[in-house]
Amino acid sequence: MLKEYDFTKGVPGKYAQRYAEGTNVVVIDPDVAEVFPDHDSVNQALRSLAEIIRRQKKPA
């Protein structure tokens, strides 16, 4: 650790429960973030895209 790191206001284990439940972090590019400003909008867009993909994969 570098001496300039200051963890005096840190909270031990703050995200431990969430991490234990599983995590899937994806970093999006800034230009995409302008269109999808939060996780809800990203998830909705991906769900819509996933539905389109599922429909195309089903036999006619």
The proportion of strand residues reads under 5%
Structural class: mainly alpha
How would you state the average pLDDT, rounded? Answer: 90
Shape: elongated
Description:
- The protein has 3 helices and no strands.
- It has 60 residues and is an all-alpha fold.
- The protein has a domain at 28-60.
- The protein is elongated, with a radius of gyration of 19 Å.
Give me some keywords for this one.
mainly alpha, elongated, 60 residues, 0% strand
Summary of the model, kept short:
This protein has 60 residues and is mostly helical. It has three helices and no strands.
Task: Set down the secondary structure blueprint.
Layout: H1 16-20, H2 30-35, H3 39-57
